Amino acid sequence: MQVRNTANRFGVVSISLHWLVAIAVFGLFGLGFWMVDLSYYDDWYRTGPDIHRSIGILLFAAMGLRLAWRLANPVPGPLPNHTRFEVLAAHAAHLVLYLLVFVAMISGYLISSADGSSVSVFDWFQVPSMTGQVKGLEDTAGVVHYWSTWALVVLAGLHSLAAVKHHFIDRDDTLRRMLGTDRRKQ
């Protein structure tokens, strides 16, 4: 498999970053959904949020790399059977997915750093607060984080359903291209 994207195929870097981000987004959502109900006396009360923040910061770095890679490596063109609506909807969905991921990550960072604290990433390094202490920022960022993550997961779910529709109903290589197993000629 080639490293870079071609006119017909995704390269291994794009495929790897896509699935890494997808796993991280759904994993973070699940962890976040579960940990909000933890009690102070639960063993995971501090560990869950520490893992959530650490993976969130690493996801930010991965998304920065993914965005740079996407700008340097244009994506393959649409398949011949894709309608104009499908192509435009896919472009819009990808743009909104990128936007929502960044909004979710930035708002999550602001929740954790609103009191001026730095964010520890698995005790490997610290990400300092960019805002210092800002009264009410944690609450505002929390609302943005809540709704952006729900919107992100719903849109990512629709994105997945569209890929499944292309695979099982249209029987085209849309999903296979992101798995690196498409049948198309190079």
Helix content: 55-70%
Largest sheet: 2 strands, antiparallel
Estimate the global geometry from the Cα principal axes: elongated
CATH superfamily: Transmembrane di-heme cytochromes, Chain C
The neighbouring-strand order within the major sheet is 1-2
Structural class: mainly alpha
How would you characterize this protein structure?
The termini are close together. A two-stranded antiparallel sheet has the order 1-2. A hairpin with a 3-residue loop joins strand 1 and strand 2. It has 186 residues and is mainly alpha-helical. The chain has helices spanning 12-35, 44-72, 84-113, 137-170, 174-179; strands spanning 119-121, 125-127.
Quick overview:
The protein is mainly α. It contains 5 helices and 2 strands.
Detail the topology: elements first, then pairings:
Layout: H1 12-35, H2 44-72, H3 84-113, E1 119-121, E2 125-127, H4 137-170, H5 174-179
Antiparallel strand pairs: 1-2
Helix pairs in contact: 1-2, 1-4, 2-3, 3-4
Q: Key terms for this structure?
A:
186 residues; mainly alpha; Fumarate Reductase Cytochrome B subunit; two-stranded antiparallel ribbon; 5 helices; 2 strands; 66% helix; 3% strand
